[in-house]
Design goal:
Blueprint (H helix, E strand, L loop, with lengths): L13 H4 L2 E5 L5 H6 L1 H8 L1 H7 L7 E4 L14 H11 L3 E6 L6
Parallel strand pairs: 1-2, 1-3
Amino acid sequence: MTKRFDALRSPITAEHLARCAEVYIRQSCIGQVRRHGESTDLQYQLVEQVVAWGWPRDRIHVVDTDLGLSGASADGREGFHYLLTQVALGLVGLIVSLDTCLR
């Protein structure tokens, strides 16, 4: 899953790398979390991709407080609100999330 980082062709700049990277992990309901653990695992593996893009592990934050919560509304989604705050404060260089829609 991890793709090789090519600094010469990357849109990622030193300014991005100076800020934190956020890996946002979410599934819509607790049943999905229980039945589809491989999806959760795949989302956690996004950290390795972020490392490959140049972020040190100590500046990568995993935001998984919204596991089992629907994305239909921002109400009650603590992790989503955290991300909004971090972005508004200018502290985020990258947000990574895996979105799958199987309907």
